[in-house]
Amino acid sequence: MKCKIHTLLCLIVTVFAGTGIVNGQSSVPEENRACLKCHASQTFSIYNEWTEREEKRLMNPLYILDTVQLAGGVHHTFNCIDCHSYEYETYPHNGELKLEPMMTCIDCHGGDPTFAEWQFDRVEEEFKKSVHFETHGEQFSCSKCHSQHYYRATARTSSDVKEIVEYSNNMCLSCHDNMTKYQLVSEHENPQLIEIHSWLPNQALHFRRVRCIECHTDVQDSLMVSHNILRKEHATKNCVECHSANSMLQASLYKYQNLRTRTETGGNNQKSFLSLFKVNASDEEFTSEYYVIGASRVPFLNVFFAVVFFAAVGGIVIHTIMRMIKK
Amino acid sequence: MGTGGKLYLYPLWLRIWHAINALGILALIFSGISLHYSGRGFLLLKFETAIALHNMAGVLVSANYFLFVLGNIMTKNGKYYRVKVPGLSKRIKKQIQYYVSGIFKGEEPPYPVSEKRKFNPLQKYSYIFIMYFFLPLLIVTGFALFFPEIIMEQVFRVSGVMLTAVLHSVSGFLVFIFLLIHLYVASLGKSPSDNFRSILNGWHG
After folding, report:
1. Chain B: residue whose CA lies nearest to A204
2. How far off is chain B from A323, nearest CA to CA, in Å?
3. Residue A314's pLDDT band (boundaries 50, 70, 90)?
4. Which residues in chain B land under pLDDT 50?
5. Which residue in chain B has the smallest CA separation from A308?
């Protein structure tokens, strides 16, 4: 019996470790456990001085953190008070602390050579040209799109383009498909995304396979992810910008993958069956893992098409001449 | 049904099918090239126009294909597409021989058109390949590309959509080459326009 219980426990631990729950919680700093005791829970206890009783209350859902997501985020090693006021260490918290200005990304990352690779200053520069800044100014902080608690740099770290797309588009949709959040910064009606994009052929597929920012930003080759979100009138409606041999997607959605492939292969094309499906466009490459009409091309097929075409036309011309001569 | 040495080989339904098919295939080739080589030449269609035209022509040619199959099942036209294996390579060789040599010497075609034999062996088997292999392949792959979500995500680390698209464009290209040769061979009648007139009025000869 004891042995069975032991086996069962081992199994449970294995399953949880597999889902990352055990890993996730262990990567949260010890100092944060006191905060998460309430902020990762549906309820909290407080001593009510009026009633002179310890009371259990429901936590405001907006203040409940998802510890799994938190552990997977880029800031998972941070202490809560690295960004929030140290006064939060006192419980019950002082209500006025809610009004304290929050730290912004640039407060830590700006001008710091440690983060040079991430180009935060360039990101800020581009963001300040964007419609978000133009319309809402400083009120539109990085956190409107990038949750400091959960943010993952998928465009750099994920090898799955679909994941990069979904993660990025969910940032946009968190406001543009959510009237409550949209109203935080705008008095306008939230645009109807499906109707407004009805001109786009295969709309559902585009939404799943490319990011909103592919068309809605001014793509900068020198920046990993363009942050200059354009006014809707300036968004590209030109299919050929993506659907051509010189596809813009090379410099945007597939940029990190391209850079990594080049690093891994030292700039050489792999000479394998798979390399047959690699497509040259300028000096960038599309891999065989996805297909874009007009952009993906198979080089050896181009040669095959040309040879067969000229052989057929040549044969017809020679045959015609021969018939004329022998007439 | 012979009248004054003329044969009524192309009934009305077949001519309608052929006309729709011809125009549809031309639209598909032009729009297909425009999509594949988009942004590469001023002679090509705009991407969005090419997409719309390719989709419409694709649906039209696919629906029309069923008219062809149905017509061949319901009328005697189907017999012209029946494969006869014995002596096949000999017959094909003989026809090739005629095209590469006999035709220049003024020889008579080895397999002249008759009510029983509308196509010469080479013509017959190229039509069979095009109509019963490449066209269905184009319709199936085209339909899959129209609804790409039904295609397998990856096949040996290659995108399923990529493989389908490659199969579609190779088949489309071979139909294009067939069309060039088809048009040229059609001009080898008594006069260059003779066969073109036949497919419009139905009468051969």
Report:
1. B149
2. 6
3. very high
4. 1-2
5. B177
Model pLDDT, residue B94? 93
Please give the DSSP secondary-structure letter assigned to residue B83.
-
Of A209, A50, A64, A228, nearest to A149 by C-alpha is A64
ipTM: 0.89
Strands A43-48 and A53-58: antiparallel
pLDDT of the residue at B178: 96
Nearest to B159 among A291, A312, A316 (CB): A291
Kindly list the domain boundaries of chain A, sorted by start residue: 1-99, 101-237, 254-304
